[in-house]
Amino acid sequence: MSSPASHPRLRLFDLPLDVIDLSDTLTLLGAWLADPARTPHTVVTLNPEIIVQSRGHPEFAQAVQDADLITADGVGIVYAAKQLRQQDVPRAPGFDIVKGLMERHGAGLRVFFLGAKPGVAEAAAQHAARDYGVGVAGIHHGYFGPEEDERVAQLVAASGANLLLTAMGAGRQEVFNQQWRGVLGVPVMIGCGGVVDVLAGTAELAPAWTRKLGVEWVWRVAGDRKRWNRAPRLLHFVQMVGAEKRRKG
Ligand code: UDP
After folding, report:
1. Which end of the chain is more exposed for a tag (fewer CB within 10 A), N or C?
2. Mind telling me which residue stretches traverse the membrane in this protein (predicted)?
3. 125-161-145 Cα angle (round to 5)
4. Taken in order 213, 217, 222, 223, is the CA torsion positive or negative?
């Protein structure tokens, strides 16, 4: 897949990363939404967890390789790009992309909310329709096995959605979007983890100060016991960046 026009593409740990800010991301996705050909596109918001997890998971790594747009979700990626590529990469986090699209396109969007526990995607859809006036193309929870992938992909395809929010956890969501992109046929498909939970109000958006500093994960890890086991993974990422830097230098 070629890099989005006029934006350089870096490689970080053998994964692609587009040097693109939020505003240009929204413009590019707007062009994909407006294209009458409805060519399917996948978006990955790269974070340290994706880099760490995809190393032992070739399908996941391939889904990131083949994505049409790969943005820097947070400060971990900005740090790695600076350390390893001496580049200042702007952030375009998943939540900001989704919110920005809803603000810009409102009723022009037909959103399929895929993922999270039963009831959560429904609440997210209701809130998005109320707050941004978006159309709801469809809703499905994210707890189904691979044997149901095709059925769900066809449901999305039949819905006529132009924006698919896939929130089924890192890895599962990127692989689903990429493997079924031809069936899904949605112009913009984003793997966007907890964004559906935030829209639903079941997870709180990290406070503005952490978002400004790009360290939302500190808040998420600290506030959610289930995530405490992830802190070592982030530390592992910093060590990985250091090791990679020594290897290259
Ligand atoms: N999720 C899902 N199906 C699964 C696992 C997770 O729909 O099999 C949902 C989960 O309910 C949450 C979102 O995916 O809404 C993100 O989950 P989590 O925070 O565990 O994943 P992360 O993306 O942070 O790895």
Report:
1. C
2. none
3. 75
4. positive
**CB-based contacts of 224, cutoff 8 Å, min separation 6:** none
d(CA 113, CA 172): 15
Strand order in the sheet with 188-191: 69-72, 42-46, 188-191, 163-167, 110-115, 135-140
Q: Taking the complete model, does pTM exceed 0.85, yes or no?
A: yes
Q: What three-state secondary structure class fits 7?
A: coil
Contact 208, 220 (CB under 8 A): no
117 close to ligand 1 (CB < 6 Angstrom)? yes
Asked if 159 and 110 touch (Cβ cutoff 8 Å), the reply is yes
Beta bridge partners of 18: 9
For 35, the 3-state DSSP assignment is coil
Give the separation between CA 232 and CA 49, rounded to whole angstroms.
11
Say which range, 69-73, 80-84, 165-169, 214-218, has the weakest mean pLDDT: 214-218
> Does residue 94 line the site of ligand 1, with CB under 6 A?
no
Residue pLDDT, tens place only, 95-154: 999 999 999 999 999 999 999 999 999 999 999 999 999 999 999 999 999 999 999 999
110-115 and 163-167 strand pairing: parallel
